[in-house]
Amino acid sequence: MSARVVIGADSVPAFPRHVKLHFNKQREQWVILAPERLLVPDETSIEILRMCDGAASVESIVGKLVEKYNAPHEVIMKDVTLMLQDLADKGFLVA
Amino acid sequence: MTTMTKTKPASPAEVQAPLAVLAELSHRCPLQCPYCSNPVNLERASNEIDTQTWCRVIDEAAAMGVHQIHFSGGEPTVRKDLEELVKHASDTGLYTNLITSAVLLDQKRVEKLADMGLNHVQISFQDSEAANADRIGNFKGGHKKKIEVSGYVRQAGLPLTVNAVMHRQNLHHLEDVIDMSVELDAERLEVAQVQYYGWALKNRAAFMPTYEQLSWATEVVEKARERLKGVLVIDYVVPDYYARRPKVCVGGWGRRFLNVNPAGLVLPCHAAESIPSLKFDSVKDHSLAWIWENSEAFLKFRGTHWMPEPCRSCDRREIDWGGCRCQAFALTGDEFATDPACELSPHHEEIFGLAAAEAEHEPPPFIYRKIR
């Protein structure tokens, strides 16, 4: 039995094997695919999720976003952590 | 999640490509579950479409923008070309899911399927208790085999969903079914209450739970969901006999989903053949895209044009899309009728009162599924 994934700054988020972040060419649309599930993330979410490659930590993902958007670290960290935790709780993400 | 939506709301006027395809490779199955979702008149092996035709259908689905393909049946593993079809679908970028009873699988074949790019396996369980499970599926040793194969699935690195069809003859084991799913290291558990069409409708009195049993089950699921957050995802499908409003069936008729049956007929839902007035088109005669856009069976109940009152002016008409046409026909003899699951249907009280009364009586013997 596995335990609940808790997302923090040191977490290295990735998609579990049954979840695919996929670009559907016909629809020109990024989607998250899982059994009986289909999520259509918004643009910001996609940007974050595409960085969830199983190598980058939450801290480094946030760092890149802080730089790109010139936004406060704590605000971005809070938003990113919330979003990733929600996905992890729904079984779409591991860390 | 606030930043994402499950699916984009579709405009009622435009026909978007389906999201998922259910590929029923065969109606053959070693199990005989009396609630099988297949039609009562099952297709024989000699009517099944060949590998080449399936590959073409898969290509056409991918070209339409379909996201997911579910290989199902009957029992899809009776087809020797399953591996080839999984590989073909996987190569087109489709998310591939195998919906199986697992009893015909061995470790070698599971590994092979994983190598072919299979994304996910869903195994049906009839109960957590072997003797009762084997009685329901009418297949001795089936439960033990399912447990074994679940292990092979995990060893092959494949994700696993436990699909447990629940009803009055196993609902009391729900907590054990949840524990079993955690022990099997499944990612997901589908607690599917029997839906009453086809075989299940013949056996309704044997399966229908009481309202009290159902409320208890809902409570068990809610508690387990909280306790197992991030460990096990639990999907819970409630029978709509005790609902006040109908469920949205297959995301709305001809809106999200299509089903290719073993003979190549394309159906808006897996039970659609139970409506005798519907005419289906075959992938042998037309492309999947042509059928999706033009087939009479899809056009008949797509959108809201077909609705009688009170559905036509109902503010939920584009939420539940009129509920389930198969259920409306099965219970009222009129496929246009308001789904009796809706409390606005004149049949609602009578039909569901009858079902609730059945649930209080001793269950009758099963009528097992078989190919005549």
Write a concise synopsis of the structure shown:
The complex is a heterodimer of chains A (95) and B (372). With 95 residues, chain A is α+β, with helices and mostly antiparallel strands.
How big is the Rg of chain A? 13 Å
Distance between the termini of chain B: 49 Å
In the predicted model, the low-confidence regions of chain B spanning at least 5 consecutive residues are 1-13
Helix/strand-derived category of chain A reads: alpha+beta
What's the total number of strands of chain B?
11
Residue fraction in strands of chain A: 15-25%
Please outline the major beta sheet of chain A. 3 strands, antiparallel
Textual characterization of the structure:
The complex is a heterodimer of chains A (95) and B (372). Chain A is of the alpha+beta class and 95 residues long. Chain A has one domain: Orthogonal Bundle (Arc Repressor Mutant, subunit A), CATH 1.10.10.1150. Chain A is built from 3 helices and 3 strands; from the N terminus they run βββααα. The two termini of chain A are 16 Å apart. With 372 residues, chain B is α/β, with parallel strands linked by helices. Chain B is 34% helix and 14% strand. In chain B, strands 8-7-6-5-4-3-2-9-10-11 form a 10-stranded mixed sheet. In chain B, helix 1 packs parallel to helix 2. Classes of the chains: A alpha+beta (95), B alpha/beta (372). At the A-B interface, strand 1, strand 2, strand 3 and helix 3 of A face strand 1 and helix 1 of B. Strand 3 of chain A pairs antiparallel with strand 1 of chain B, so a sheet runs across the interface.
